[in-house]
Design a protein that fits this description.
single chain; mainly alpha; 9 helices; about 60% helix
Amino acid sequence: MKKTFPIILLFFFISNTNGQQLDSISNHKKLSYKSFILPSALIGSGALLLNSQFNRDNQEKSNSLFGSNFHTQVDNVTVFVPLIQIYAGELLGFTPKNTIKHRTIDVITANTLSYILVTILKNSVKSTRPDGSDRLSFPSGHTAIAFTNAALLYQEYKDANFWYASSGFVFATATGILRIANNKHFSSDVLAGAGIGLASGILVSHYNPLQKLHFGKKKKGTAFVYPQLGNQIGFGMLIQPRF
């Protein structure tokens, strides 16, 4: 328990400091290296812990804490809560920073970037999962997606309601902890995934070249982003133009 406690504390530190980190970033029109200190620290920590004895010991402590046969599907739900919150906030009476079109483009771009980075690393590192099911352990895709959308959520609603805007980090952190508890990921995988997700969300929320594209005449329509679950998580989108 002593070895798992620092990791759990670190996750709470991430949840509590992300708001301060992103808030200071949002006060600058241009990104600087300071914007990526926290994401870099998380990714670096994950890389350092990869294949370490501490990593393995922490997993054993986690299995002892939650039980060797522990299994839940809750992490397949919490991973998408921040995404849902991005759209639900307006329905709850909070004023988002951007239009639904802007939010949708940011969501698609940021999650695509995060997914690509995670996929490249998974297939390059080829780290075996704690349960031995495959060699796609590092980094955690669930954690990356959850933190990507938590970062976007914060940017959208921080001026309307700080607590709602920050709540996405609670679900993102819970996703990471449950991935460890489910014996699907080591702590290193989750830390790196959180860093990738934060970096993707921060980058796209401040600079998204797709926002500048215009596809012919402006037409009103609806767009809906939905999660896809399988061996790997992903997203789909339905677009219904109105002519």
